[in-house]
Structures are given as C-alpha cells and as structure tokens.
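Problem: given the chain below (450 residues), write out its structure.
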Amino acid sequence: MFLSTRVAICGAGPSGLSQLHAFESARQCGLQIPEIVCFEKQNDLGGQWNYTWRTGFDEYSEPVHSSMYQNLWTNLPKESSEFVDYSFDKHFGQAFTSFPPRTMIYDYIRGYAEQNNVRQYIQFNTVVRWISYSEDTKRFNVLVKDLKKDEMRSEEFDYVIVATGHFSTPDIPYFNGIETFPGRILHSHDFRFAHDFADKHVLIIGSGASAEDIALQLYKYGAKSATLSYRTKPLGFKWPDGIKEVPLVVKIDKETAYFKDGSSQEVHAIIFCTGYIYHFPFLDDNLRLKSPPRSLYPPGLYKGIFWLNQPRLLYLGMQRSTFSFNIGNVQTWYARDVILEKIILPSTKDEMQCNMALWQEKGKSVQNLSDYVHFQKEYILDLIAATDYPRFDIDRMSNTFLECIKSRTENMLTYREKTYASVLTNTIAKQHHVPWLNEMDDRLENFIKK
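Solution.
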C-alpha cells in the first residue's frame, strides 16, 4: 500500500525535519514508508532558526519567514529543549553554556538533519501556493511554485502535514495617534540589530517573551531606555535601571506616548511585541486552522495534530510549547504511526471530539506556569505511550524549565550564567567565559573549542 501513498510536508523547520526523521527512522528499521516530499520556501532548512538580515520580503518577493535577530541567545536552557535522540553532546562533543546564541542552535539543527539523512526529501526554494481536498479522488491537490525557475506545478498527495509554524505573520494593533509618530515603527518580526537603537528611548508594546528579551537587548546595546507597555499585567521582573513597565498605551502624539495610568514618555522608536496570528493562506477554507493565539489545545485538532474534518491533514507544533523541539518531535512519531497504520484513529468524529473535550477541559484548570508545564507534560506522555519514541526523564526536563524561570525572576541580567545538566547525558553545562551582558561576539567559534 505505502509504495503508492504520497505525503507532502510543508516546511523544513524543526517540526518538518522531525517528521522527516520519523519516517526515515522507520525506513532504516526495515519498514516500508510512503513517498515523502517536503516543500521549503527558503534556500535552506531550519525554519525560524535560518536567520536572514532581510525584513519584509526575500529575494523572490516572498514574505520573510524568520523572526530571528542578530544577537539572539536562548532564553531557556538548552537542556530543556534538546532532541531526545540527538543530544548537544553528540553534536558538539563538548560542554558549553546552557544558554547558547542562535548560531549554535542553528548548527545543532543542521547536524540533526544531516545525521538523519533527511535533506534528500526536501525541495528548497519551493513555496506552497494552494492546497485543496477532492472528495472525488480522496486526495489533496497541492499547487507549488519553484521560485528559482519561476514555474508552477500541481501534485496530488494522500496526506498533507503542515509544519510551517505560527511565528511569522505579525499581529499589529492600532493605537490612537500612532500615525503622528515621526520615528521608526516595527514589529519584533522585523527586529534585527539592537545597536540600531543606541541612545534612543524605545517604547515596546507587549509583555511576552519577545518584549522581555528585546528590552534586555536594547539595554545591552546602549539604548537610553526601554519602556514596556502591558495590556493585562506587568511581567514583574527586577529590571535594571533604564527599563520600566507601564500600563497599556492609550494615545501617541508625535514623540510622546500616553499610558492608561496617566503617565507619559518621550519615545524615538516603537517596537510591537504583540505576537503573531495563525496564518495559512495556502489552505482552502475548509482545511484552515483558525486557532486563537497561544492556545493550550487548539480547537479542531484531534490529539493536537489531526484536522477533525479531514484527519489526513495534519498540523505540527500549533500549541504553546514548553518543551520546544520535543513536543513537535513527539507529535511526528505519532503522526507517522497513524500514516503507517500502526495507530488507528477513532472511526467517528464524535469519538475524536469526546477526547478533545477532555483535554480542553483540563486546559481550563491551568492557572499558572507550573500548571501549564504539567499540562504539556501529560500531553506529551499521552502521545509517547502509543509509540516507540525514545523515553526520557520528562519530569527532570520540566524541573529544569521551572528552575530557569525562577532564576530569571531573581535576576534578569545574570540568569544566563546559570548551568544545568543534560537530561539525556548528565553532562553539566560549562559557564561561558564572558557574562551575557558583556559578550558581543556570538560567533560559533567563540563558544566551541576546535
């Protein structure tokens, strides 16, 4: 059967690569697998981690996918996110900081792909334009464009796996008077170089992870001040001098921003850290996920993966994620086993909805970060139980995550100097020779000894 079955994977970021690895792993174990084709619009793999200096549009006038900035370091320890079957030890062969720069994570992702021999399945510079499903043929019609050749073509597939992520299309709200502002306005998606804002007063609208880290980037690279404007509640960290939190901005009049508490601030630049929307313009309306942002258990997806109205359409990594690469990795194992018919989905939509309702009810009880981590842990364990995915100490990985959050709350400027032990190898990370605040050289060779 599987020789005639075709599977399309949209995107070659961490989730797409994990899906390719899941199939390749099965093939290497002697199992027959379908024909796999992965479409990637960028010129290389890595998804978000494939950094580009470009903003807006790429060389083919396609929207830029990556939201990475030049000097980004991880804000969570690598020990809470390493691939279970490909440790950082295995890739780099030595201990290094728990909070590496993006250059190291990208190198690690590339190594993961090379080890698993998945590049053979990927068609680069190929963007998916449209996907629809035919009830007559019981197959998906996938229209793609070869960007280099400037040619369109259509192919049919039995399954489609969407692994394009949801951190590329900015959500930018309007604020009264913003059109009078004479300075630079951008979304964090287009933030690249913190030193562009040296000696400036910067307004950051938002209070999520991007707002937090960009504020620290601005502090590190010489901005006069960073003012974070929150909608519901402040982050509440012990900020250094020059960073403060204020309620939501209510009006902007030229270079002055006015806030809900009656205060005001002179600003020279505005950075929206207001999140992203789920955006799948290449999917027919009856296939398109329209999930609320930051959803714990996206509605319409059985097991958080299978499109309820057409389970041969799969989505990866659509949840809010604590376990970074591993949640997508676990999903791909489950997805593979369904496609290989090792796992049989419920025969009716009602059965699937009953299971989804249980998880959505659990999600309602999540009140704090600890609850959130526990919810994700239960979800991962539920998927793992049905597959041969490598077992790992998820409780220990959860504790590493929570310890990091506590450390960050205690000192925003030094939490990256903490070290943690790998859950997979027990290797204890090595503290970097220069504190994050003073380290301006993010090159790979500055962190790894040859």
